[in-house]
Amino acid sequence: MTARGPVSPTPSAAVRHRPLDGPGARLTGGLLRDWQRRSHEASLPLALRQMEAAGNLDNLRLAIAGGHEGYRGPVFMDSDLYKTLEAIGWELGHADSPALREFAAEATALLEKAQQPDGYLNSYIQVTGEPRYSRLMSSHEHYCAGHLIQAAIAHARTQGADTPLLGIARRFADYLVDTFLGGEGGIDGHPIIETALVELYRETGHEPYLRLASQFIEQRGQGLIGDSGFGRRYLQDWEPVRETAVLYGHAVRALYLEAGVADVAAETGDGELLATSVARWEDMVATKTSLTGGVGSRHSGESFGDGFELPPDRAYNETCAAIASIQWSWRMLLATGESRYADLIERALYNGVGAAISANGQRFFYVNPLQRRDDHYEEDDPGRRNEWFSCACCPPNIMRLMASLGHYLATTTNDVLYVHQFAGASLAANLGGGTLRVDMTSGYPWSGQVDVQVRSAPPRDCGLAVRIPGWCRDARFVVNGSPVTPDPADLGYLTVRRHWMPGDVLRCDLNLTARLTYPGRRIDALRGTVAVERGPLVYCFEQADQPGDVSLEDIALSPGDLAARDGEVPGIGPTVLVEAHAVRQEPARQGGLPYSGQPEDPPTAPSGSAAAGGDPITAVAVPYFQWDNRDGRAMRVWMPRTGPAQ
Ligand SMILES: [Zn+2]
Questions:
Q1: Residue 320 C-alpha to ligand 1 middle, in angstroms?
Q2: What is the crossing angle of helices 339-347 and 271-287, to 10°?
Q3: From CA 440, how far away is CA 410, in angstroms rounded?
Q4: Ligand 1 center to residue 429 CA distance, Å?
Q5: Separation of 366 CA from ligand 1 center, angstroms?
Q6: pLDDT, tens digit, for every residue of 337-370?
């Protein structure tokens, strides 16, 4: 049985963990379920309207009519439709929705008519008459094909293998195999076809799809793609995947490629290939990841920066990059069973992705900085969320992730059910000898209490494991009222092995007390600052919550006891209150320049003293994912700090 989610390794795959079979994981409550429901009710209807307005469907109608004038939008317009169709596929797996089902049927009928007799399908190429694959470096033809395949897999896994969309995808994939397998080149400037082909192999058992994915990965880095104008690093074509130690270039492309590398390594049992991906993941986490889990710090080329190049105000952190990072980490978690991958998924999900969506689910960030100034102004980027984009990659990417969130909650090994993410959920794991069904209830991430109650269990011993988040310094566990302690050898997890009975409860208490986080000394852009986190949530300071006439630009934190002073902003969530100073002195000036012969550090006097130029105030922090839902004024995650680090 395959998983009813985006990733379903074959029985012979070299993975330590497997996703739950079938509809094994279902969100039932809490913040993640709220996000999923919001995406269904508010975001998807918006996407359908926006795509009709932007021309995504008209482009296909033009292709069907044989028109050669009037194509609208970038070359990859088809991919927006495919990502939306993928989201609809996963949504239909939760519950029927006549409106979404009808849209999918109409779009599928258009795709069937637009598909060429040999299987090729791309509205841009067909309408403009540009020769196929004449500039694969920038035409995104495989990229669009990859998203078509992923959409088809979503529909096949929730609607059945006879779904017409899978037929369309297979005809196209067969054409790709006939055209490119065994040849040299044919590599798209924008990866995703790799992981799509592996998943199609998993779905159909047709081995040439896997071989073509492997070929695309092995041939990358040999300069076969061409010069994009951004250089070969931009396209991950600088050196072969097996010889690359760090991620560079366009972040989303690099991360989709890594997901494909992990998939190919899993299905071919290539431990050497996997090890190279592990090394790049470690380097990305250690030197190129924002506190929010966002990655790809440079606006130029939407790319990774150098190590420790992590500016909070100019962080690019494309939403799609956070999503792609989750997709990669999930595959690494399956391959290795290591909790650090689930830790990064949690960080990127609650912060990097969570902040990209407005509270009403109808506006989105493409770029996710960790600071916005009051005078922020860019002609093409107001710094606030938008309904849609001329390059609309991010919104439907969010929707397909939200629709498939349940997939990322839990895994199994032979006889252990592992819970990686905490939420209201019902989980069913086929373990050797029977099915372990549990209901998880939790107010996470607002509350650290998680109850996992057994509904039914195999008639013998089996394991139930929960992740101990890397940020958590104080976690307590109780089974039916009796404390249990983690085995230190069981890194990042508490595993309880016993003859589970219906009604048994494993209770987890994760201490969510707010904490201070300091930047590593090599991150120049963050030197002298401090941030606040609470549980898995990164916090930020918005102008709207600060006292009186104090400008956010003039606040320096002198952190005291954070935990005892939690509050609440209605509609925004729990706050963290922090002792701070409002700096009243005029900024330094030397000849009119914002520099001085004397250091102008934040005030260092003890709290309460105005002598150093700072008035004591209480600064208010709110969850970062909730920022920009009010007045659109200044925000920052990293604050200047006073006094010694605590
Ligand atoms: Zn994007």
A1: 4
A2: 40
A3: 11
A4: 34
A5: 6
A6: 999 999 999 999 999 999 999 999 999 999 999 9
